Amino acid sequence: MQTSLIHMGERLKQILKQRKIKVIDFAKKAGFTNQIAHYHLRKSEMKRANLDRFCTIIGITTEEFMRWNGAQLISLDKNLHHGRRLQTIIQDKGLNRSRLADRMEMSRRTMYNLFDKEIFSPGELERTARALDMSLDAFLNPGTVAEARNTETEEIMLQREKYYKLLEDHNELLRLYNHLKDEVIHLRRELQDVRKPVENK
User: Fold this and answer.
1) Between 90 and 138, whose confidence is greater?
2) Are residue 101 and residue 129 in the same domain, yes or no?
3) Fewer CB within 10 A of the terminal residue: the chain, N end or C end?
4) 94 vs 1: CA distance, rounded Å
C-alpha cells in the first residue's frame, strides 16, 4: 500500500497505545511473535491485506486508521462523555438541530443516537468538530482557551455560510461578465469585418 504521508507502523503503534493494547497482546491476536509485531511497527508501508487484518483485530475501520489523529483521543477530562458534550454545545450555542445534522451529513435520528454514545470514533469526532466549526482540541477539552477561541453562535455560523454563498455567486457573476465581455469584443470585430467591404465600395 503506497503511503507518502503516513508512517503506517507509527500510526499502528499510536493507535495500540491509545487503545491500551499491549504489543504482545496484539501479536498474540494476530498470530505471530512479538518480534514480528515490532517489525510491522517499524515499517513505513503496509500491505492492504495486513492493514485490514490489523484493523479488525483492533476494532476500527481502515478509514478510521487512515484518518486517525493523535489529538483526537487526548482529552484533559478523561471522563468526558462525548454525546453529552455534543448536547451541551448544541444548547449553549442555540444550534438548529436539523441544520447541524445536515452539516454532519447524517439524519437527525443518527445524530440523536450520538447523544447516548460515551466515546465517539475518530471519524465521528472529526465530523462532529467540523460541523460545529470547532477544533478537536476545543471539543475534547471544555472550558479551555482552545474552546474559548472556537466559541461561536448559530447566528455567526449562519452569517459565515451566507458569506461563502455570496462569494460563490459573486465569482459566478464575474465569470459570466468576462464571458459576455469576450462575446461583445468578438461581435464588434465581426461587425467591423462586415462594414469594411461596404465602406470600400
Assistant:
1) 90
2) yes
3) C
4) 45
